[in-house]
Amino acid sequence: MKEGNRLLEEMNDRSREVFRRVVESYLETGEPVGSRTLTRSLSEKVSAATIRNVMQDLEYLGLLDSPHVSAGRVPTQVGLRMFVDGLLEVRDLDNSDRLALDATTTQGGDDVGGLLDRVGAALSGVTHGASLVLTPKHEAPVKHIEFVSLGHDRALVVLVFGDGHVENRLFRPPAGQTPSSMREAANFLNALIEGKTLSELRGEISRQIATRRQEIDTLAAELIETGMAAWEKDADNSARLIVRGTSNLLGQEGEAEELDRIRSLFDDLERKRDIAEFLQLAESGDGVRIFIGSENKLFSLSGSSLVVSPYMNADRKIIGAVGVIGPTRLNYGRIVPIVDYTAQLVGRLIAERS
């Protein structure tokens, strides 16, 4: 039995109700809750002094905290976790939220990337938070590769997959590359590419370069090694993370300290290299998962919460995830069914297009 659930069972009805009211009020307003406020909402009529004693006991247990002397109480991270695990009442999905999410399926064409962009924007819109969408990795065999020079420090690679999918990716080529060296590199790759995915091609190239380095131009070898390393990171390790609605978070927080925290969070997100960890968080549990504060290992900060759910393809294999990130006082009861429905919606749409 979880420690939080054990504490809940050991509480009497009054302590449990005081705790629940404090957390619910905090999640709704973001403000500390005082004993006088609770006297007006409790089902049992008791004095403010009695409620203060109960709140002190809850503070002693580590479930509540006093941000300022003589102020009301707010839930701690431990308290929020106990509330989510034992007292959270998840609402049914509002019809208006369902319609807003469903509308993304009737816009644009069949491009999966565009679909996920729209889903991310809609998820941010209905939750008034920041949405995260991890796109599925594309592991079809590559049919053709072509490099296009865009300047001395920028180049484009065009990838044509065997299933008809086409991707254009920008990368920084090694210094001194020329159009001819890029053509040589493309020819070299296309001679090896038949029937291989990008990850398989990466291993084959490493072996080929080791044995045939003298047969290709040095610049072409550098281009292949540098470029393929970048492709592999995109295609196999980190996939693509879509972030929408950061302005919602910035607009909600009025104090400079909170603004700095939110900005730092997204700076941290942009720097994060191993975005695949986001998917691993979702894979380690069934359905929607809630990470509160420092439980959220994706970010280095502790002042945020992540509600995340994986989505699956037609073979019931987890290929991505969707989530909402925000301050710890998220409306979890409303956010959970929205994230759950969005994950099911994305999985169904991708299965239909596969």
What is the element string, with H for helices and E for strands? HHHHEEHHHEEEEHHHEHHHEEEH
N-to-C span: 42 Å
Determine the number of helices (DSSP H or I, runs of at least 4 residues): 14
Q: Domains counted in the coordinates: how many? A: 3
CATH architecture annotation name of the largest domain: 2-Layer Sandwich
Main β-sheet description: 5 strands, antiparallel
What is the CATH homology-level superfamily of the largest domain? GAF domain
Determine the CATH topology of the largest domain.
Answer: Beta-Lactamase
- The overall strand count is 10
Supply the CATH class of the largest domain. Answer: Alpha Beta
Strand proportion = 15-25%
Strand pairing plus helix content: what structural class? Answer: alpha+beta
* C-alpha geometry: elongated
Helicity range: 40-55%
> Uncertain runs with pLDDT below 50, 5 residues or more?
231-238
GO biological process, one term: negative regulation of DNA-templated transcription
Function: Negative regulator of class I heat shock genes (grpE-dnaK-dnaJ and groELS operons). Prevents heat-shock induction of these operons.
Pfam families: HrcA (PF01628)
Protein name: Heat-inducible transcription repressor HrcA
Walk me through this protein's architecture:
β9 (305-312) and β10 (318-326) form a beta hairpin. It is built from 14 helices and 10 strands. It starts with a helix and ends with a helix. The relative contact order is 0.12. It has 354 residues and is of the alpha+beta class. The strands form 3 sheets. It has a 5-stranded antiparallel beta sheet, sandwiched between helices. It has a 3-stranded antiparallel beta sheet with strand order 4-5-6. A two-stranded antiparallel sheet has the order 1-2. Mean pLDDT is 77; it is low at 231-238. 51% of the residues lie in helices and 16% in strands. It folds into 3 domains: 3-86, Orthogonal Bundle (Arc Repressor Mutant, subunit A), CATH 1.10.10.10; 95-137 and 239-353, Beta-Lactamase; 142-238, Enolase-like, domain 1, CATH 3.30.390. It is elongated and about 85 Å long.
